[in-house]
Amino acid sequence: MIRVRIAPSPTGFLHVGTARTALYNFLFARNKKGKFVLRIEDTDIERSSDEMVDVIVESLKWMGLYWDEGPYFQSERREIYREHADKLLQAGLVYPCYCTKEEIEERRRRVIEKKRAWKYDRRCLFLTQKEKEQFERERAKALRFKVEKSSSFEDLLHGRIERSKEDIEDFVIVKSDGMATYNFACVADDHLMKITHVIRGEDHISNTHKQILLYEAFGWTPPEFVHLPLILGPDRAKLSKRHSAVSVLEYRDRGFLPEAFVNFLALLGWSPGGDREIISFDEMIELFSLERVGKRGAVFDIKKLEWMNGEYIKATSDRELLQRLLPFIENKPVTKEKGQEYILRVIGLLKERLFLLSQFWELGSYFFILPEQYDIDGFAKYVRKGKAEIKEERIGEVMKSFKNLKKFDSETVEGCVRNIAECMSIKPALIIHPIRFALTGKTVGPGLFELMEILGKDECIRRLEYFVENIIPQYRTQINANMLKLLSY
Ligand code: GLU
Fold first, then answer.
1. Disulfide: which of 2, 60, 77, 354 matches 32 by Cβ 3.0-4.6 Å?
2. What's the gap between Cα 111 and its chain centre?
3. Is 157 in contact with 145 (CB distance < 8 Å)?
4. Strands of 151-155's sheet, edge to edge?
5. What one-character DSSP code corresponds to residue 48?
6. Which residues pair with 197 in a beta bridge?
7. What is the pTM of this model?
8. Pocket residue to mutate for ligand 1, from 9, 52, 202, most atoms within 8 A of Cβ
9. Do residues 60 and 10 lie in contact, with contact meaning Cβ atoms separated by under 8 Å?
10. Which residues are CB-neighbours of 466 under 8 A, at least 6 positions away?
11. By the 8 A CB rule, do 157 and 293 touch?
12. Between 431 and 280, whose confidence is greater?
């Protein structure tokens, strides 16, 4: 049975790179009807926190990556590591090291100054019996693995990867505080948890070499290894905060749908074949294979993610979208007063234009409150192009006609506006743009007549009046001379 794991360290939030690794492990496990294990690698007690464990768990759940086993916590497995370290100590494969951080740092600095590469100089391997006894009394000790062989393994993606023993230092397996290091705990756990495939980032290759030596020391068969290429920024450097958000929950909070985020991540290094881009979770599980994972780093293109999110939003039912939107509008009390049916109608109209859930309020706050601002500069562009103009008497005419309407559905309103334009012998656009501007404060948006139907007759008239009484005079005095010219009739 295939068994894979994701083993995040709770020293920070769930990074996009780890999220993709988790996804590939998950898809591989589901595709092979295997098990997906969650292991929290919290051996670095100082830097790990419960809060980050919660963030990691929440991130995985948000993405729909539910684990079959775990979470296991390495901090609760100290005894297991100690027993295993003892075995290696007894077999003479590891040795105690009493060097302090400062001493090592000092020696390292001196070697680097001479432009030579540093690796642990085996000072503690050659201590005299007397020195050893003295250190034993005075100092805490770590355990170091004595590297005597080169390392070589077959990576399922990259083929054979080798490293000569000269390039691997005697690495620490148990720190002076008694806690196992990542490399040691990882090998013990992967073995004891019967992990068959270790799928992780390429940045772990040098760790894998050390881990291979540990597998050999224990006489254990190592799992298969797959080192995924890194996720890159547009400049082809490793993706970092400098390029874009790297915390999974930040994408949630920005209004990405988990389905879109997962779809996007899946394609950062894997391809189902052909040029399909929108793939459902179930299809991903069905089609996923390690053979179709690329060797080259994939570039994280935020524009593509936004496009994909827009596609997923369009494909989501209005009712479902309402549920997803609620966290983004809950803090706007008016949305509660208006009720869900009203919001649903707004969703129906704005859906096509929505790339992020968080944009909903920005795009459509005017459905709930008076326009928060009027995009006077944008409107001025229309005026300059001769596509619109504001004449109070025209707005007055429009209001009068609206007041007389018995029905206020989009067709009736449209008929009424076109009729006014015809009577005045002007293009309908010369009325349509100013009405949109007066009602919404914006120059673009969904179909004007549809949005008017949703706002309703009374609200439309109220806003037109408000516009004439408050906004036009305000801009007359506030805006620059150019606009004054445009608005003063
Ligand atoms: N704790 C390691 C990390 O977060 C796990 C690496 C591995 O998968 O072995 O990078």
1. 2
2. 41
3. no
4. 159-163, 151-155, 224-228, 197-201
5. -
6. 224
7. 0.92
8. 9
9. no
10. 370
11. yes
12. 280
Distance of CA 152 to the CA centre of its chain: 34
Residue 488 has pLDDT above 50, yes or no: no
R_g over Cα of the chain: 32
CA dihedral angle for residue 186, residue 188, residue 193, residue 196, rounded to 10 degrees: 70
If you average pLDDT over residues 131-138, what whole number do you get? 96
Query: In this structure, which long-range contacts are made by residues 485-489, counting pairs with CB atoms below 8 Å and at least 24 apart in sequence?
Result: 486/380, 486/383, 486/384, 486/389, 486/390, 487/390, 489/389, 489/390, 489/391, 489/392
Reading the block at residue 327, the tokens are 């966290």
Place of tokens 């919290």: 42
Cα separation, 358 vs 361, in Å, equals 7
Nearest to 413 by CA among 389, 391, 431, 396: 431
Instruction: Indicate if ligand 1 lies below 6 Å from the C-beta of 187.
Output: no
- The one-letter code for the residue type at 263 is N
CA 22, 25, 31: angle at the middle one, nearest 5?
A: 135
Section 383-387 average pLDDT:
68
Contact present, 449 and 441 (Cβ < 8 Å):
no
Give me the catalytic one of 149, 241, 314, 403. 241
Active-site residue 241, yes or no?
Answer: yes
Residue whose tokens read 């192009």: 385
pLDDT at 390: 65
| Spatial separation of the C-alpha atoms in residues 94 and 143, rounded to whole Å | 6
pLDDT at 170 over 50: yes
Question: Greater confidence, 415 or 390?
Answer: 415
> Does ligand 1 have an atom closer than 6 angstroms to the CB of 193?
no
Over the chain, what is the mean pLDDT? 93
209 lines ligand 1 (CB under 6 A): no
- Token pair 């591989």 in the structure block, residue: 28
| The pair of three-digit structure tokens given for residue 375, joined into one six-digit string | 């995009």
Tokens representing 116? 């030579």
Which superfamily, per CATH, for 1-72+229-312?
HUPs (3.40.50.620)
CATH code of the domain made up of 376-486? 1.10.10.350
Asked if residue 478 has pLDDT above 60, the reply is no
